[in-house]
Write a structure and sequence with these properties.
The chain has about 220 residues and is α/β, with parallel strands linked by helices. Helix content is about 40%, strand content about 15%. Helix 2 links the parallel strand 1 (about 20-25) and strand 2.
Length: about 220
């Protein structure tokens, strides 16, 4: 591995945002999942959560989305859950706040949110949005302001818009540099993991793992 490659991996690892993540609930289209993974990698997210409660959804949907992730799946871990309680317990233990995209009366415009604090963004599927079951775990709702006739965006587009508002706020706060709250030991561990993943013999390594009822 060249010194330039090592430096690139170190820079990526040390910019990761350990207090920012995404939860996808019952997203059907594998290409949407892949596009979300790519956006997450782009803004410095190192792990996301996928929750499947519909029986026809399996880990194969994540594997099929490999191409649309543009190689980012190698660098973003995926926690796959089939039990909502287990999923949100894991998320809240680490990220505290869950904000859902939901057109409720109490929903706040995205740009009014303070996104420099720990947060997990919850997105529902393409047809039904976030379920009532998942909403029960949310600490708040938000909407992306829109000025056209359409009242919703494609899930992967909505996620990208949301994440880049978080990136904008975190850049202004210096959180991709000296004000990154991620502990040094965690950054170093992630760098070492990326060195391993970059190795040619690990080029087919699965960057996701299954947790919850079906994964045990």
């Amino acid at each position: 591995m060249t010194p330039e490659r090592r430096q690139r991996l170190k820079e990526v690892a040390f910019r990761r945002q350990s207090e920012l993540t995404v939860i996808l609930e019952n997203v059907h289209d594998p290409h949407n999942i892949g596009a979300v993974i790519r956006s997450c990698d782009s803004v410095g997210i190192s792990e996301i959560f996928v929750l499947y409660t519909e029986s026809h959804l399996t880990e194969e949907h994540i594997l099929v989305g490999k191409k649309s992730s543009g190689g980012a799946r190698k660098w973003v871990d995926i926690h796959l859950y089939f039990d909502p309680d287990a999923c949100f317990r894991h998320v809240k233990e680490k990220y505290g706040r869950v904000l859902a995209t939901h057109l409720g009366e109490a929903a706040e415009p995205l740009h009014n949110l303070v996104l420099t604090e720990p947060v997990a963004f919850l997105f529902g599927n393409e047809r039904d949005g976030v379920s009532e079951t998942a909403l029960a775990y949310a600490d708040g709702n938000f909407v992306i302001p829109q000025m056209g006739m359409a009242q919703s965006l494609n899930i992967s587009v909505a996620c990208a818009v949301t994440l880049y508002e978080a990136l904008r706020q975190r850049l202004l706060a210096g959180m991709y540099g000296e004000n990154n709250p991620t502990p040094e030991a965690e950054k170093t561990a992630l760098y070492e993991a990326y060195l391993e993943r970059s190795d040619l013999k690990n080029k087919n390594r699965r960057a996701w793992r299954v947790d919850g009822e079906k994964g045990e």
